[in-house]
UniProtKB/TrEMBL annotation:
EC main group: isomerase
UniProt binding sites for Mn(2+) 1: 430, 434, 501
Stated family: Belongs to the BPG-independent phosphoglycerate mutase family.
Keyword Isomerase: yes
Residues reported in the UniProt entry to bind substrate: 140, 170-171, 206, 213, 286-289, 361
NCBIfam families named in the record: pgm_bpd_ind (TIGR01307)
Presence of keyword Heme: no
Subunit structure and binding partners: Monomer.
Designated name of the protein: phosphoglycerate mutase (2,3-diphosphoglycerate-independent)
Enzyme Commission number, as recorded: 5.4.2.12
Binding-site residues for Mn(2+) 2, renumbered to this chain: 28, 81, 471-472
Highest taxon in the source lineage: Eukaryota
GO BP: glycolytic process; response to blue light; response to carbon dioxide; stomatal movement
């Protein structure tokens, strides 16, 4: 025990043994909803997941995965991978980035912080650039926060502002970007009336431009860099509204994948490249899809692509995105302090851990799970394996993704008996659900179920335990609904496809031959959420959870 009295040592669970191999399976974007034709999980053949639900009612339940249960501002906020995996791994509910930024903006504290003071130094002679996702999805960013920041920055001295927009269509309906750009243009026009030189300078669809994650495809970040920093893009327009309208006319165009564009003046000159002496803020609060750009903006030594120019700027993130890398080093709002995660406790108590997913979700079961911290806690106790994702495609063309490969890695890790916990994220239902392709999402759900089966079979073989859950809903409802729950139609009478996550609860199932007799879900945690899973897993490893963790979902009854 250190001088502070803190100790990593967990108490033994009074009834549950140690030493069982536990598979922790997170199905990404797998919620529970009414069975109907837009519920791809229902339509798909999913015998493994069905048997968990039907097999043992005291070992299957639903938990909340959205809103306040995962630290989001309101219960109208759908869940997402960051907050979901944070809650699963940390066992407590932390006010998340969305909420912390709301508070900092409302109180005005954001303008008193180190990060804002730092960028403010550039306002006299330089331009303030704001780069981020333009929507009200609330997953990576929010339009109303951008609006407040624009107003606040101009009131605090920013004289020249350029916004570099990334269109969404993934956390919000496809086609909504035009409206968001129009709203922003209105705000900027009002700023101009007040004498602030404010304009949109560049843009592009989030999946084409800037917002790659976990270093899957640096070309995405390069395309953004070229437009935002160098002022170069294949498409040039006089206004962003015109840009989005025109680019959406191409066959199969959608908001997520719009190509990069720059806004030019009457002489064809880009209106807002980033140059020496400027300030830059990346206004997404969520980390995963901003870390790569943050590296490009901040690191002197950088070899991921040719930056051509590396302007001397003052850069602040909305938040600090990576607590281990301390990246970026300046930020407007302090991130949630997600400390003492279950993963860290467990390695300190001898639990050897294996974690695996494919690139696009790799950081979810490692970085997010560990409280937005990259790297190992104790390298000799842990192994994290990343299976390279396909890149340059939309996942509806390969809906099986790497589910089989992930399951095989989990199988091998379990059979090696080198690990006590084998944790995976199966990405299919989420990544394919985001494409809005219902047929492909059905294939995706089946592929994830096949992977679950392989892992459960392996657990059976070694006498282990499984915990199967999800981080939020997605594939279980693929249509936008009205308040009565009826599908909404567009003006041509077609249903409006829902590419985003949902507000639905997610399943948690426990079982396996290693599960002690008498273990079942408690009935006195009816409002349980994802944060209750960590204590549950600790119990199954034979430990009591720390006192301040959300309560366990299980009890052991004598039979
Ligand atoms: O980043 C994304 O792909 C979406 O905005 C959210 O999906 P995720 O939270 O499942 O990653
Ligand atoms: Mn997810
Ligand atoms: Mn998702």
């Amino acid at each position: 025990m250190g001088s502070s009295g803190f100790s990593w040592k967990l108490n033994d669970h009074p009834k549950l043994p140690k030493g069982k191999i536990i598979a922790v399976v997170v199905l990404d974007g797998w919620g529970e909803a009414n069975p109907n034709q837009y519920n791809c999980i229902h339509v798909a053949e999913t015998p493994a997941m069905d048997s968990l639900k039907k097999g043992a009612p005291e070992k299957w339940r639903l938990v909340k995965a959205h809103g306040k249960a995962v630290g989001l501002p309101t219960d109208d906020d759908m869940g997402n991978s960051e907050v979901g995996h944070n809650a699963l791994g940390a066992g407590r509910i932390f006010a998340q980035g969305a909420k912390l930024v709301d508070l900092a903006l409302a109180s005005g504290k954001i303008y008193e912080g180190e990060g804002f003071k730092y960028i403010k130094e550039s306002f006299e002679t330089g331009t303030l650039h704001l780069i981020g996702l333009l929507s009200d999805g609330g997953v990576h960013s929010r339009l109303d926060q951008l609006q407040l920041l624009l107003k606040g920055a101009s009131e605090h001295g920013a004289k020249r502002i350029r916004v570099h927009v990334l269109t969404d269509g993934r956390d919000v309906l496809d086609g909504t970007s035009i409206g968001f750009v129009e709203t922003l243009e209105n705000d900027l026009a009002k700023l101009r009336e007040k004498g602030v030189d404010a304009q949109i300078a560049s843009g592009g669809g989030r999946m084409q431009v800037t917002m790659d994650r976990y270093e899957n495809d640096w070309d995405v970040v390069k395309r953004g860099w070229d437009a935002q920093v160098l002022g170069e893009a294949p498409h040039k327009f006089k206004s962003a509204v015109e840009a989005v309208k025109k680019l959406r006319e191409a066959p199969n165009a959608n908001d997520q994948y719009l190509p990069p564009f720059v806004i030019v003046d009457d002489n064809g000159k880009p209106v807002g490249p980033i140059v020496d002496g400027d300030a830059v803020v990346t206004f997404n609060f969520r980390a995963d899809r901003m870390v790569m750009l943050a590296k490009a903006l901040e690191y002197e030594d950088f070899d991921k692509f040719d930056r051509v120019r590396f302007p001397k700027i003052r850069y602040s993130g909305m938040l600090q995105y990576d607590g281990e890398l301390k990246l970026p080093s300046h930020y407007l709002v302090s991130p949630p302090e997600i400390d003492r995660t279950s993963g860290e406790y467990l390695v300190h108590n001898g639990v050897r851990t294996f974690a695996c997913s494919e690139t696009v979700k790799f950081g979810h079961v490692t970085f997010f799970w560990n409280g937005n911290r990259s790297g190992y806690f104790k390298q000799e106790m842990e192994e994290y394996v990343e299976i390279p994702s396909d890149f340059g495609i939309t996942f509806n063309v390969e809906p099986k993704m790497k589910a089989l490969e992930i399951a095989e890695k989990a199988r091998d890790a379990i059979l090696s008996r080198k690990f006590d916990q084998v944790r995976v994220n199966l990405p299919n239902s989420d990544m394919v659900g985001h494409t809005g392709d219902i047929e492909a999402t059905i294939v995706a759900c089946k592929a994830a179920d096949d992977a679950v089966k392989m892992i459960l079979d392996t657990i059976e073989q070694v006498g282990g335990i499984y915990v199967v859950t999800a981080d939020h809903g997605n594939a279980e409802d693929m249509v936008k609904r009205n308040k009565k729950g009826e599908p909404l139609l567009d003006k041509n009478g077609n249903i409006q496809i829902l590419t985003s996550h949902t507000l639905q609860p997610v399943p948690v199932a426990i079982g396996g031959p290693g599960l002690a007799p008498g273990v079942r879900f408690r009935e006195d945690v009816p409002d349980g959420g994802l944060a209750n899973v960590a204590a549950t897993v600790m119990n199954l490893h034979g430990f009591e959870a720390p006192a301040d963790y959300e309560s366990t979902l299980i009890e052991v009854v004598d039979n």
